[in-house]
Write a structure and sequence with these properties.
It is a single chain. The protein has 102 residues and is mainly alpha-helical. It is 50% helix and 12% strand. Strands 1-2 form a two-stranded parallel sheet. Strand 1 (66-71), helix 5 and strand 2 (95-100) form a beta-alpha-beta unit. Helix 1 packs across helix 2 (20-28) and helix 1 (9-16) packs across helix 3 (35-48). The chain is elongated and about 60 Å long. The model has no long low-confidence stretch (mean pLDDT 90).
């Protein structure tokens, strides 16, 4: 059995009968949305149990505050650099992601 993905803003738009841009404007309070459309969007959000994804929003707004580092191989050679990057990220309240390409 395939699990249903969490509802998206596109699902909300379809349910409310509005565009994705209108849903975005409502969620971000970036432009005027009429009271009638607000009610339709709010009802769709409630029916779908829609919860905005904070990571997706941060990525879209270019505000993810994440530093990623990919090293070619896991070895002690990279430990000083990994520690330094991790410390800098921590000082600036950034998340730090580490991956190996091997």
């Amino acid at each position: 059995m395939k699990m249903k993905n969490r509802p998206s803003s596109e699902d909300v738009a379809l349910r409310a009968g509005v565009s994705r841009a209108t849903v975005s404007a409502y969620l971000n309070r970036s432009r005027y949305v009429s009271p009638e459309l607000q009610k339709r969007i709010e009802q769709a959000i409630k029916e779908l149990n829609y919860i905005p994804d904070p990571l997706a929003r941060a990525l879209k707004m270019n505000d993810a505050k994440t530093i990623g580092l990919i090293i070619p191989i896991v070895s002690n050679f990279y430990n000083p650099m990994i520690r330094a990057v991790n410390e800098c990220a921590h000082q600036k309240s950034f998340s730090f992601l580490l991956a190996s390409s091997e």
